[in-house]
Write a structure and sequence with these properties.
Number of domains: 1
Number of strands: 5
Strand order of the largest sheet: 4-3-2-1-5
Strand content: 15-25%
Structural class: alpha+beta
Shape: globular
Helix content: 25-40%
Largest sheet: 5 strands, mixed
Number of helices: 3
Distance between the termini: 41 Å
Radius of gyration: 16 Å
């Protein structure tokens, strides 16, 4: 059974999606500064933002999910710090990204997560 990593990174720059397993793993190493065999998924997109590839490593080898939107474009990505080559995303953000939803929906999802996190921290603070 396929096991998906919890950690998700989205590349901020477009990539040639003709590249496959080893070349994408090389991009993870050289441009993103990460270990492609680690416990993370890496999301890449093309210049037109119509196609995306997700690379991750399982115990038996690399896996790639390749997706093309019928209409619209991917909104890549979220809030990007200056000079960042990738940003971390939640599963919900990845779901929204792969649906091709506009940036406002991603911002709303992030806001909801921040509010939920702040509420949980306040609850823990009042208990302890």
């Amino acid at each position: 059974m396929m096991r998906l990593p919890e950690t998700i990174y989205v590349a901020t720059e477009p990539v040639n999606l003709h590249l496959s397993f080893d070349r994408l793993a090389g991009i993870v190493r050289q441009q993103l500064g990460a270990d492609p065999r680690g416990e993370a998924m890496y999301v890449f997109h093309n210049r037109r933002r119509t196609h995306a590839k997700i690379l991750w490593h399982e115990p038996c080898g690399y896996s790639i999910l390749y997706k093309r939107l019928d209409r619209g474009v991917y909104r890549i990505p979220l809030a990007i710090p200056a000079g960042a080559s990738c940003v971390q995303a939640t599963r919900r953000e990845l779901e929204l990204l792969l649906q091709g939803v506009d940036r406002r929906a991603l911002v709303a999802a992030r806001r909801t997560l921040r509010q939920r996190s702040a509420r949980d921290q306040r609850r823990r603070g009042s208990i302890g």
